[in-house]
Amino acid sequence: MHSKTAFFTPTVSATIKQIDQGLPRACQHISWAIDYAEHGHVDPYVHTESQHCGRTELLIIDEADRLKTAGLEQVRDFYDRHSLGVILIGMPGIEKRLARYPQLYSRIGFAHEYRTLRKDELASVAAQRLPAPDPDDDGLAHTAAIAAIVRATNGNFRLADRLITQINRILDINNRQHLTPEAVDAAQEALLIGH
After folding, report:
1. Long-range interactions of 154-161: CB distance < 8 A, separation 24+
2. Where is each ORC1/DEAH AAA+ ATPase domain found (predicted)?
3. For a surface tag, which of 11, 29, 56, 117 has the fewest beta carbons within 10 Å of its beta carbon?
């Protein structure tokens, strides 16, 4: 088992108790999964390295901008008590907010702001996750559909992910083997994107 990364997303109104329980639980599940993969069973008394968060190397916290001051302090305390890396993912401006908390900000190694995807990057992502072109029409419908996805999402990866997931659902429900502009339109309507 190569992945030793835990993922945690706080609820919109996460309480201190939810965060205090959620962070260790997410990491503990990774440690147990590694134990199970290596030993065929989970026994933290026998395999003491997997107690608590012992085998988790990285904790990713999505929607970190939802955390209030006390929640950010919980994350800082958790980081201080365990030997693992922490990545906070949030909306633009989270770095400025974190800068107001010197105890936490002094532990930040760097900040990275994701840019929108270029058209060719988004087209590549979409092509990888969607069915292959129909050879009967020389891939024209596929090309038009990919172009519609690029236009509708404007480089926003999260929006593209939602749209592609919905397109795949629509194709599956309708037993379609190939991507069409009509499937993209139906997915856009279902998600209220670009209308």
Report:
1. 154/116, 155/115, 155/116, 155/117, 155/118, 155/119, 155/121, 155/122, 156/116, 156/117, 157/114, 157/116, 157/117, 157/122, 157/125, 159/193, 160/117, 160/122, 160/125, 160/126
2. 36-98
3. 11
- State the alpha helices, DSSP H only, in 64-116: 69-81, 94-99, 102-105
How much is the pLDDT for 1? 44
Q: How confident is the model at residue 109, as a pLDDT?
A: 83
What's the average pLDDT block by block, 10 residues per block, for the chain (195 residues)?
A: 82 91 88 80 68 79 90 91 88 85 84 86 91 88 93 90 95 94 93 68
pLDDT of residue 145: 94
Amino acid letter, 195? H
- Runs of H (alpha helix) within the chain: 16-39, 69-81, 94-99, 102-105, 119-129, 140-153, 157-173, 181-191
Find tokens 């962070």 and name the residue: 23
Please give the structure tokens belonging to residue 178: 């190939």
The Cα 109–Cα 104 span in angstroms is 11
Q: Which domains, from first to last, does the chain contain?
A: 5-105 (no CATH), 119-191 (1.10.8)
Burial 89-109 (b: 16+ CB within 10 A, else e): ebeeebeebbeeeeebeeeee
